[in-house]
Design goal:
β2 and β3 form a beta hairpin. The protein is about 60% helix and about 10% strand. By secondary structure, it is α+β, with helices and mostly antiparallel strands.
């Protein structure tokens, strides 16, 4: 390989490496700093409860945005890596074509010919189909326009791949910015809620826990699914027994009880709501989408009346999800500061039910 060719290859490698470096140099998100306790002496327990729920709901909405951006960023990084490989292969091909064009020109000038197999190996996409007929090699040498045309097409492909990689890098930067913004919102809302909780007096904390207990009892009476006694029952008190993959998913989710909620987490030591359900079903051999919104959009929907253990109950505007375990109960990762636990299925506004593995 001559000096100029080596220089071209080094420059093209440097250009490809620049894309990789650009990814690693993207700015990371900042972190929120907890503040002083925020006393709520002038508010009723109901108002404090509503304010805390509102803050944690906003944090969960932001968590869903973070999880969505996280999944999107992973897909973009994978696509960008593939584009870099394509780019490197095309650069190699273009360098080989330059070498071939030079060799062909020199050989013609001297009145000789190039081995047909070598031409086919350089020009063809299938080296195992190398030319057998030497006359075809001589024809290729006499027609340098063929090499020139392939060079032109390869340059165009190189340009297209470079532009595609640059666009994907821009998309990745935007997605990471979305993740950073979602992270900021999550941490701010959680920090605000924690300041409020830290400022509560012991009696206020006790009353707040009692209020939540009363709400859970009331939620049980609102259950309208199987076994509720309102005529929608499927004939079993639990809405059917889990079997097969659903049984494995339920068993996995129940085994996580007591592990802390951490936004963006998918186990094994902590989970957010959709991290728990997606990991449980993956453990059962049926991978499902990562986020609650993608689970709602991508899985088979069933009626609440026919819900059975292993099904996912989607809440609010698809920003929370729990796994139905029977008897009007779900297992879920509720919110920051709490652990994976069971709860009445009707304890939150139900959007609908989806069934994985169908």
């Amino acid at each position: 390989m001559n000096v100029s060719t080596r220089g071209r290859r080094l420059r093209s490698r440097a250009a490809t490496a620049a894309f990789v470096c650009a990814i690693t140099l993207l700015p990371g998100p900042s972190y929120a700093t907890p503040g002083e306790p925020d006393p709520r002496n002038d508010q009723s327990i109901e108002d404090i409860h509503d304010e805390l729920n509102g803050l944690y709901r906003q944090a969960e909405v932001a968590t869903e945005a973070y999880d969505t951006a996280d999944v999107k960023a992973a897909e973009q990084e994978k696509r960008l890596a593939s584009l870099h490989k394509d780019l490197a292969r095309t650069e190699d091909r273009l360098d080989d074509l330059r070498d071939l064009a030079g060799a062909a020109a020199r050989t013609q000038y001297r009145g000789g010919n190039l081995d047909s197999t070598g031409i086919q190996l350089l020009l063809g996409d299938h080296p195992d189909h190398a030319l057998d007929d030497a006359s075809q090699a001589r024809q290729a040498l006499r027609n340098l326009v063929t090499v020139s045309t392939i060079q032109k097409n390869t340059r165009a492909e190189l340009s297209r791949q470079t532009d595609a990689a640059a666009e994907k890098l821009r998309e990745l930067k935007n997605t990471r910015a979305d993740k950073a913004e979602a992270k900021r919102k999550i941490e701010n809302k959680i920090a605000e809620a924690e300041r409020i909780e830290a400022g509560l007096k012991k009696e206020q904390t006790r009353k707040l826990a009692q209020l939540e207990k009363e709400e859970a009892q009331e939620a049980k009476s609102r259950w309208t699914g199987p076994g509720s006694g309102d005529g929608t029952s499927t004939g079993t008190s639990s809405g059917g027994e889990a079997s097969g993959a659903a049984a494995k998913a339920v068993a996995f989710a129940l085994a996580q009880i007591g592990k802390p909620y951490v936004w963006g987490a998918v186990g094994p030591s902590s989970y957010d709501c959709s991290g728990l359900t997606s990991t449980a079903w993956a453990a059962a051999g049926h991978p499902i989408p990562r986020t609650s919104q993608a689970q709602w959009q991508g899985l088979t929907r069933v009626s609440l009346a026919s819900v059975r253990p292993g099904d996912l109950i989607i809440y609010y505007d698809a920003t929370h999800v729990g796994m139905y375990i029977g008897d009007g109960e779900i297992v879920h990762a509720p919110r920051p500061g709490r652990t994976v636990t069971t709860a009445p299925a009707a304890s939150m506004p139900i959007l609908g039910v989806v069934r994985p593995g169908v």
